[in-house]
Structures are given as C-alpha cells and as structure tokens.
C-alpha cells in the first residue's frame, strides 16, 4: 500500500511540474505579446501622428478606432464559438468604461499641457499610486524586497527618460487625474475578473463596445480642444489608412495582453515589468530612427532592467515564504509531550461530568 501511495505521489508531482511548465510558457507568452504589441503600436502611431509621417494627431479618435476593432474581434470570436460570452452587470461595465475613458482623455491632456519630462515623472508615479490604492482598497501589503526593487525600477526609468521638467497648474491637475484614473483602471481589470470569475478576453469583449461607442462620440470634440483641428477636414491617404489599420490591429493584441497580464499577476507587476517597453522603445529608436543613446540613458536602462529582475525574484520569494508559513500553520505536528496533557484534560472533563 505504501509503495502504491508513493508512486501516486510521484505521479502527482510530475503532473504538477507539467502544469507549472505550461503556466510558465503561457505567462511568458502573455508578457511577450504585451511588450511586442505595445512597442509595435508606439512605432505605428509615431508614423501615423508625427509631422514627418501622416500628421494624424487625433489621438482620442484613434483610440476609439482601437476599441471599435477590438469590440468587432470580440463579437466575431463569440459568434464563431471561439470565446464564451458571459453576462456582466452593466453598472460595473459602465463604471469601468468611465474610469478608463477618463484615463485616456487625461493622459492626452497631460501630454499636451506638460513638458515631456514631467509627463514621464507622472507615468512613473503610477507604480507607488497603484501600491497605495491596492493597500487602501484591498488591504494588500508588500515586502521590503519588493519595495526596494520598485524603487530601483523607478530611478532607472527616470534617469533614462526624464529630461526637462516644467510644471504648471493645469498640467499638474491633468497629470494627477491621469495617474489616479489609470491606476484605478488597471486595478479594476483584475478586480472585475475575480469578482465575476471571467477570463481576460471575456471582460475585454464586454468593455470594448462601451468604450468604443463613448469615445467615438466624444473623441472628435476632445481632439479639437487638444489640437484645434477638425477631424472631418483631414484627408485620408492610402498610407494613412494602412498605418491606422495596423495601429488598430496591434491595439487588439495590446488590449488582450494587458487584461491577460493584470488578471494573472497584478496591476503593480504590470506597471513594473511594463517599463521593459520603455527600454525596448529607446533601443529601437536608436536602431531604426537614429535616436541618440547617451551614457545616462544606458545607465538608466541598466538600472531599470536590474530592478525588474529583482522585482520578479522578490515577488516569487514572497509567494514562497507565504506558502511555507501557511503550510506550517495548517500542518502543525502533534508532539509526544502533548499526548499526556490531552489525556489529563480528558480525565478532568470526565471527572467534571461525573461530579455533575
């Protein structure tokens, strides 16, 4: 019997290892999809929106196109049976879309009203903001190692991206709204998946149509306020349409991978490891667009990568320690010294019962 039990235990361990490997591959795939699609969409948008490209500077409207294509992909996938359509309360979907659209509009405002340096600082402040909001909303705490690695990532990315820093009241207000709303949006993605027990693509398929419809309505007006140009006056060329469609296609993968990564890990992990995109963009800018990489940039990129690696280790270490402490509490062994005490307690109880 013991030999059979030991054999079954070994087979269970092998199955667990196989599952872990499968999970590890899918996790790496999710991060790879997010980094590649995010870097790709930045490059495509640079061609679409830059003066040297097609000068399509309607950022909010372009985002509306992104969610329209994403919603269409979700509808087609559900219709063909490739994904499951799950009912979610409209109230939750509406609140999420409101927070998400606020994030998009305020981020564009922050970019317009602030210097590039202050805009980058605002983006970096999302990491501690997510940590604080997670602590307030979900009572989540972080180990000293995690906090230190987050600090190293922030310093590294700050060194390689922050240049001129000019602050004004309107820009500061837009940046504060952008940071809080974006942080809440990313926390909300994970919270909704857990609350309704739904997958990342299921949630995205439900939120994308609402965001697309609302942004198509308000997008042209927001863009007019931001850049002073009317969308209907833009002349679409074949090249502009191609790169807009390319941007929309990459946005589908970017949105899916964002929901996937946050659902599997956390908003903090998405923020920290997401800065790998910054490193990739700087490197590709140097390779493809002859951008200058200074020693300061290289030092900051190195610090950021070291911080990300340390963060990954710190998170896994915290999980291991938590699992060990939980196992010790659940499986507390019975010592031989406790047996006489248990017997004496039982005798006292019996004696007490006899007296009564």
Descriptive key words:
single chain, 356 residues, mainly alpha, 82% helix, disordered N terminus
Report what the structure shows:
- Helix content is 82%, strand content 0%.
- The chain is an all-alpha fold and 356 residues long.
- It has a domain at 58-231 and 266-322.
- It is globular.
- It is found in: Membrane.
Kindly summarize this structure in a few lines.
With 356 residues, this protein is an all-alpha fold.
User: How widely separated are the two ends?
Assistant: 47 Å
Indicate the multimeric state: single chain
Biggest sheet: strands, sense, closure? Answer: none
Class derived from helix and strand content: mainly alpha
Count of individual helical segments: 13
Overall mean pLDDT:
80
- Number of E strands: 0
What is the helix fraction of residues, given as a range?
over 70%
Radius of gyration: 26 Å
Order of helices and strands: HHHHHHHHHHHHH
Low-confidence stretches: 1-25, 344-356
Pfam families: TPT (PF03151)
Main location: membrane
Domain Sugar phosphate transporter: 38-312
Membrane topology: Multi-pass membrane protein
């Amino acid at each position: 019997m013991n030999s059979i039990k030991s054999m079954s235990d070994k087979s269970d361990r092998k199955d667990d290892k196989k599952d872990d490997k499968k999970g590890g591959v899918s996790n790496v795939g999710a991060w790879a999809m997010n980094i590649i699609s995010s870097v790709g969409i930045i490059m495509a948008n640079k061609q679409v929106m830059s003066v040297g490209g097609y000068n399509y500077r309607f950022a909010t409207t372009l985002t509306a196109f992104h969610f329209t294509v994403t919603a269409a992909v979700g509808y087609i996938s559900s219709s063909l049976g490739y994904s499951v359509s799950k009912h979610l309360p409209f109230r939750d979907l509406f609140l999420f879309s409101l927070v998400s659209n606020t994030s998009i509009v305020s981020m564009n405002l922050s970019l317009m009203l602030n210097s590039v340096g202050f805009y980058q600082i605002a983006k970096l402040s999302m990491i501690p903001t997510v940590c604080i909001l997670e602590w307030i909303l979900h009572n989540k705490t972080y180990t000293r190692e995690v906090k230190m690695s987050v600090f190293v990532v922030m310093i590294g990315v700050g060194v390689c991206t922050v240049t001129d820093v000019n602050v004004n009241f309107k820009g500061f207000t837009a940046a504060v709204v952008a940071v809080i709303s974006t942080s809440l949006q990313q926390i909300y993605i994970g919270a909704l998946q857990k609350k309704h027990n739904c997958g990342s693509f299921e949630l995205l398929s439900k939120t994308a149509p609402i965001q697309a419809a609302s942004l198509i309505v308000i997008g042209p007006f927001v863009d007019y306020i931001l850049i002073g140009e009317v969308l209907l006056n833009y002349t679409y060329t074949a090249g502009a349409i191609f790169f807009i469609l390319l941007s929309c296609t990459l946005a589908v993968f970017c949105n899916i991978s964002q929901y996937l990564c946050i659902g599997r890990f956390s908003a903090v992990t998405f923020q920290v490891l997401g800065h790998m995109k910054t490193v990739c963009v700087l490197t590709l800018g140097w390779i493809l667009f002859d951008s200058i990489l200074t020693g300061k940039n290289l030092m900051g990129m190195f610090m950021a990568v070291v911080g990300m690696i340390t963060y990954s280790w710190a998170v896994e270490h915290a999980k291991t320690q938590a699992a060990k402490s939980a196992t010790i509490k659940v499986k507390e062994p019975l010592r031989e010294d406790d047996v006489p005490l248990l017997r004496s307690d039982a005798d006292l109880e019996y004696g007490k019962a006899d007296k009564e």
